[in-house]
Amino acid sequence: MNDLIKFTNILFFIGEMDDPNRCQTVFTHEEARRLETLDSTEFGCLNLVHPEKIFERRLVIKALKFYEQRLEEIQRSTDAAVETDNRFLCDVLLKLGHLNLLIHDFVKALSAYQRFYESKAEYWKDAPFLYGLGLVYFHFNMHKSATEIFQRLLYLFPNFCKAAEVNIRLGLAFKALHSFDLAIKNLRLAFVDPNPTIFSKAEIRFHIAHCIELKGDLKKAHSEYQSLLQSSQVVSPVLRASLLRQLGWLFFREESFGDKAHRINVAINCLQQSLKADPTSGRSHYYLGRCFSAAGRAHEAFLSYRHSIDKNESNADIWCSIGVLYQQQQQPFDALQAFVCAIQLDDSLSPAWIDLGLLYEQYFQLNDALKCYKNALKLKSKINQALFDRIEFLETQLKGRPKASVEGESSKSALLLPNIEDVSRLPIPAQLLDRQNGYQRQRIDMYLKGSLIGIGLNENDDDALPSLNSQQMQMMHILSQNQALLNPHQMLTLRQLQETHALTQHFQQQREQQRDEEDNVPRSQETVNVDPITSTEIGMRTSPLSDLPQVTQEDLQAFLGFTDQEDLTNSCLEPDNRNKTRIDKNDPIIPTNMLFSTPVTIQDSVNSDRPTFLAEPPPSCLSLTAPLNVPCTISSSEIFQICKQRNLGRCKSVYEENVLPPQPPTCNRNLPKERLLLTTPCTVVDTKKDASSLELQRFCYQQPIVVIRGLTSALKMDLSLFSTKTIVAEAANQQVELRTQYLQASDVNVDSQGNVTWQCGSQPSYTTVGKYAAYQLQSFQNALKDDKEKMKREGDLECNYSKRKKDVALKKVVKFGTNVDLSDERKWHLQLKELNKLPSFCRVYSSCNLLSHLGHVVLGMNTVQLYMKVPGARTPGHQENNNFAGVNINIGPGECEWFAVPYEYWDAVKTICENNKCDFLRGSWWPSLEDLYENNIPLYRFTQKAGDVVWIGEGTVHWVHSTGWCNNIAWNVGPLTASQYQLAIERYEFNKLNSFKSLVPLIHLSWQLARNIRFSDKTLFEMVRKTLIQSIAYCQIVLDYVCERLRKELKHHPRTEGENSHYCCVCEV
């Protein structure tokens, strides 16, 4: 008897002892076996309204009652042991979570999953639990939580049977979070996955192209849309309509596609074709209205906007565009009401505030215009110089004239618009606001009602069946009477309604024949002519996502042509989850509830990916932080023997195969405020003997960051070899990455409105060393000429900054030349030779430098890179790759200001980054010193003068601001210490968790170290040996699986000298 039968019987007898009169619930062996496989992995596969799935439907209803009763009994019981209660409680909660998820009762599923999470210490070892919890988070649009759960799931179980589904949801969640690169990465992984998914391959390609469009690469997006449109994969008319809509909108926006008249004509043609394929799209009507408006066809534009409003009256962009059109037609009051409608629907829509400000300014109501412009400024994430200039101009005008004069001028206007404080009381916005509130209440009610697939969980009826409510019946009548006018999606919905209605009536007839009870609920008196539906036709649709949704008044209106069915933001994969949070207010995606009209066939077996010929499958991944189950002195032959026994299920593996990712370090968050500004470790080197002393090396290894002064002078290093003049002479045409940034004080980082932010604006581009050198020189010469004027401005800096922070944008930009590669030994022979004068622990190549043993180049880590700076150039906050240490030398002549946080506090910094919507690993961020102070995070702050060497300890968080014209050279080093190796391993695993490729291949590095080094540090020796044991065991298990079980031939690929290491992962190409 399997474990589930034993478990249910134990619970049954516990319940019997508590309540002998309780109604007994008994599962047959067949039911118990099927119940064992019912978990979250069947979400999207199991169709509980399918006639052939009546066994599963009855089983789910029966099991839900059973587990809910058992939960109550366990909570009441005080006789059983605590351990038994806890185990049973966890099992019951987990099963309740899975079963409620399968019937789409997300509220109850979330409750059960959260209680399981709190009760189970090793919850992370249960992959279906992580998947189910992620699905629930995703359903409720908790995208940040969903990404964390799904990333942990893929880290722990890379070969999870639903990995493709996870990647799809990760892609859509990252798109909702505006992390478009990560979204594209995960969607591509889902695209190349051979396993069937709810999305078709064409739909996944569409979402990839849409992410590319949202990134701003319109030409590439256009190419992707065209390629997909011409492919044979597009079979859905809704998908074709969406492609045509996006192509039309691209032509309307992208100036490089031709002259304006040609682009508008092409856009109108595409949008009209889109509407032929899907006339229900309100977004297509809106785009068409924008095109007609740009072409001067006002009447047609109004008609298109009207159609769009009829289908989606709650879209703020539509009302904003209508306002612009009214303004062009000299109808200011109508324009005002339209703009107010847009603001009421979405008060974060900055174009609406700008347009409203222009309207007020046109009628000389400057105070109202200024308020609108300032509201728009607060909402814009990017600098809008024209808007700033307009604000300054209006402020100058208002300050230069008395208030009475301004009011008198506005009164001379032909009319006086209501002021900004009164517009919210206009009737139209109030009506729209009521509709919005009603809509929100309706959505909340839908979430709280529970199951959305219509499974009736009648307390007195185990065989409860889905039935149509009054709105569904009304919709079925309307659709059946207008079949000739229906699009494919509406025809599909009609068939679903008819199938469910016929099925319900069939079983009601059977029930009436079997029961003599007089109080049965009478059948509906509605009569509908329904053609018989064969079981074969019904069986074609196996995904509940294409089955009958819960019909709301909104859905009914949609089919009558009153609302837009294509809410286009996050594309949740459930039809009931119509997310209303827009990613881009101008760029829709395919309506989710229309994407699944194509039947999807997915195997019901949740263990289809588990090989039947192995007692134990290969481990899903190798974690370098996993503990060993064998002594570190084990030989290779013993490892091979254990691997064979492990594959047969006769013993444990060499290492733990399922472990959590490494946890962040603990830190002291209770430091007194006066100790938060740390004294920077600094040492002065006077002689060559001091430079080569072991004390200097030990001092650097023990500190988070160190300033070494006098080192380059004591070693007589010629730093002029790295000056701009010398670099230009050697390689004027070499490429340099350019970062365009706004000039700010070193301890200030504000946005366009002057508010403190962590986002560090740094726009990438490319130029040549010669061109940047000319810019650097010109900047220096201009500064010398204007020195006196600059000093005068600096005297008024404080008061001017106070004003600027409130009203004025960051106007001046600086350009930072970064990542000039100096790895070519032939071109940069003299420069690299000069660096060999440094102490061995600081050198680029040294036997005590871990990175020197890699055997291949990792640019910027075991090679030198040059940074060319002007005052204000910034290196945003970061940790060095894989937590390695670093060396930075200021060539001069100017200085740099450094900020650093000890390694132990990196997770605290990461948390604040996330709270400020910054990506700690990939983003560009500049910490606020006030935030660090408030969160009790200690800080180093110091100046790096010309010739100073800065040693960056492993894992130290740091950011740098140049205060003068200077060049810097930098590279990474790996101290031959256990702490450096441990931190590198932990970051390697942390990067895997966050889908971030580590630049240092640590397994390869460990084998290289074993070949090249005789270890003196026992701890480091054991850590490296542990990695080798894990590596060889994992390779042997996989090798046995491929060669002996799958009967595949192994081909050897010889390695060439200097060849980069290869990472084992799914190719994204």
Blueprint of the fold:
Layout: H1 3-18, H2 29-37, H3 54-76, H4 82-102, H5 106-119, H6 127-139, H7 143-156, H8 163-176, H9 180-192, H10 201-215, H11 218-230, H12 237-253, H13 260-277, H14 282-294, H15 298-311, H16 316-328, H17 332-345, H18 350-362, H19 366-379, H20 385-400, H21 403-411, H22 427-448, H23 470-481, H24 488-514, H25 535-539, H26 553-560, H27 636-647, E1 677-678, E2 682-684, H28 688-691, H29 694-701, E3 705-709, H30 711-714, H31 724-731, E4 735-742, E5 763-768, H32 769-785, H33 787-795, H34 797-807, E6 813-821, H35 829-835, E7 865-869, E8 874-878, E9 885-893, E10 896-901, H36 906-915, H37 929-934, E11 939-944, E12 949-952, E13 957-962, E14 966-973, H38 978-993, H39 1002-1012, H40 1018-1045
Parallel strand pairs: 1-11, 2-3
Antiparallel strand pairs: 3-12, 4-5, 4-6, 6-7, 7-14, 8-13, 9-12, 9-14, 10-11, 10-13
Helix pairs in contact: 1-3, 3-4, 4-5, 4-6, 5-6, 6-7, 7-8, 8-9, 9-10, 10-11, 11-12, 12-13, 12-14, 13-14, 14-15, 15-16, 16-17, 16-18, 17-18, 17-22, 18-19, 19-20, 23-24, 23-26, 27-40, 38-40, 39-40
What does this molecule look like?
It is a single chain. This protein is α+β, with helices and mostly antiparallel strands and 1069 residues long. Among the domains are: 3-156, Alpha Horseshoe (Serine Threonine Protein Phosphatase 5, Tetratricopeptide repeat); 315-425, Tetratricopeptide repeat domain (Serine Threonine Protein Phosphatase 5, Tetratricopeptide repeat), CATH 1.25.40; 615-660 and 977-1069, Methane Monooxygenase Hydroxylase, Chain G, domain 1 (Up-down Bundle); 673-976, Jelly Rolls, CATH 2.60.120.650. It is built from 40 helices and 14 strands. The strands form two sheets. A nine-stranded mixed beta sheet has the order 2-3-12-9-14-7-6-4-5. The longest helix has 28 residues, at 1018-1045. The protein is globular, with a radius of gyration of 34 Å.
